[in-house]
């Protein structure tokens, strides 16, 4: 198990889990819809490596940053809403054909183990709540993470998603804990930074045995680790 930063919580008050790429292998399923939506909205596009580099970002922030890179201007709120509506529709159409993303068994087992030990578990995710709840249920994790134990970026004020610490602070508060008393499980750089800034013990699940690690994610992981400057 690989930790991010020196913090350890021998007896955590809660275990906080990202969802996409941490509990369910949904990231490869989401990628095609970004470029397909882009063809319909101004020609926005991203490579697979760029896609993984956006891991953990709130969807509106990804859209705005992608618009800056591809168009060279700020996206309007109306553009962001239209683009994400198309992305959501296309993702749903793909999922209707191929089915929901599979569970990532190595991290799901950790969540179940904490729960069995009486430690509350909470999801802290940048994903859309409709996707998150459906995917957790399909992965057999609906009882582990019921809706009231899920915090999404949309539950926070605008601009306060990962890498800001707010989502992990909110997730900890749901079960009456301080984030500094919690362990957080993540797969993306923005999530690591958010959990670290919240004071959590931070675990990088990508180093767990059995974790699905495609080449593009491995490249992104190595580059982001080498460029990391936010750990003091």
TrEMBL record:
<protein>
    <submittedName>
        <fullName>Haloacid dehalogenase-like hydrolase</fullName>
    </submittedName>
</protein>
<dbReference type="InterPro" id="IPR006439">
    <property type="entry name" value="HAD-SF_hydro_IA"/>
</dbReference>
<dbReference type="InterPro" id="IPR036412">
    <property type="entry name" value="HAD-like_sf"/>
</dbReference>
<dbReference type="Pfam" id="PF00702">
    <property type="entry name" value="Hydrolase"/>
</dbReference>
<dbReference type="InterPro" id="IPR023214">
    <property type="entry name" value="HAD_sf"/>
</dbReference>
<dbReference type="InterPro" id="IPR023198">
    <property type="entry name" value="PGP-like_dom2"/>
</dbReference>
<dbReference type="InterPro" id="IPR051806">
    <property type="entry name" value="HAD-like_SPP"/>
</dbReference>
């Amino acid at each position: 198990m690989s930790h991010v930063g020196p913090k350890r919580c021998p007896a955590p008050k809660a275990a906080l889990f990202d969802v996409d790429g941490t509990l369910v292998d949904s990231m490869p399923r989401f990628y095609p819809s970004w470029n397909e939506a882009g063809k319909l909205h101004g020609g926005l596009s991203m490579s697979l490596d760029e896609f993984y580099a956006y891991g953990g970002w709130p969807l509106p922030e990804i859209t705005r940053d992608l618009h800056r890179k591809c168009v060279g201007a700020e996206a309007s709120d109306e553009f962001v809403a239209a683009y994400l509506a198309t992305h959501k529709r296309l993702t749903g159409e793909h999922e209707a054909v191929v089915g929901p993303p599979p569970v990532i068994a190595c991290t799901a087992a950790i969540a179940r183990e904490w729960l069995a030990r009486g430690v509350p578990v909470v999801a802290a995710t940048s994903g859309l709540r409709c996707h998150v709840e459906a995917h957790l249920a399909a992965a057999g994790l609906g009882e582990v993470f019921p809706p009231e134990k899920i915090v999404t970026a949309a539950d926070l004020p605008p601009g306060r998603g990962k890498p800001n610490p707010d989502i992990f602070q909110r997730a900890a508060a749901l079960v009456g804990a301080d984030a500094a008393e919690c362990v957080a499980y993540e797969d993306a750089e923005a999530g690591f930074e958010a959990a670290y800034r919240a004071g959590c013990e931070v675990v990088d699940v990508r180093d767990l045995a059995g974790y699905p690690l495609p080449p593009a994610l491995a490249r992104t992981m190595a580059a982001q680790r080498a460029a990391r400057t936010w750990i003091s």
